[in-house]
Amino acid sequence: MIGKLTGRLDGVHEGGCVLDVNGVGYLLACSRKTLDALSAREGVQKVLVETHLRQDAITLYGFADAAEREAFLALIEVKTVGPQKALLVLSGLRPEELARAIAAKERKRLAEVKGLGAATANRIIDEPAMQKWAVGRATPEADGSGAVGIALPAPEADDATADAVSALVNLGWKRPEAQAAVNRARARLGAEAPLEGLIRDSLKALAR
């Protein structure tokens, strides 16, 4: 199996490129973002590779960095999402953007990826393994103030707020971060906001 190639870019075409390794040209299938990254570099460069064997073909998939390869491997585990659709996703979204979209369940954003479609986007977002992958990579960031995990004054206790915090903690967020996000969501959405709305709004804020 080939896991990495080091050589010079010899040509780029729709859906892939040729990497010249000591005079041997390797045909790699790549995302648009990997092709752009490789084209912007000069000289000898390293390309990470996943080798897929089928009865009638051997296909090499190339990646400019480890994050994209990890995203590719996660995507192809989703039912009906094969390597080509995974490359479509990664051509439209960087791995960190994909993680944020999945964590916040931004179905429309994922469905807008060229060539993907709503059904496949929903399948990716609803796949538990993809949610787990996304939460580990949608790193909590500051809310614009430069501080991370600073809790706001807690609103009056209610079941929806407590359940929303618990849901975020179960998804892997630390309780202070989860509480702060839910407090902000409650302040934005109002006292009558339902549990689902609180969770969705909080995840969007945490994934930014």
TrEMBL record:
Q: Which HAMAP family match?
A: DNA_HJ_migration_RuvA
Keyword DNA-binding set for record: yes
One GO CC term, this protein: cytoplasm
Q: Does the keyword Chloroplast apply?
A: no
What is the name of the protein in this document?
Holliday junction branch migration complex subunit RuvA
Q: Which Pfam families match?
A: HHH_5 (PF14520), RuvA_C (PF07499), RuvA_N (PF01330)
Its quaternary organisation is: Homotetramer. Forms an RuvA(8)-RuvB(12)-Holliday junction (HJ) complex. HJ DNA is sandwiched between 2 RuvA tetramers; dsDNA enters through RuvA and exits via RuvB. An RuvB hexamer assembles on each DNA strand where it exits the tetramer. Each RuvB hexamer is contacted by two RuvA subunits (via domain III) on 2 adjacent RuvB subunits; this complex drives branch migration. In the full resolvosome a probable DNA-RuvA(4)-RuvB(12)-RuvC(2) complex forms which resolves the HJ.
Segments carrying the region annotation (Domain I) are 1-64
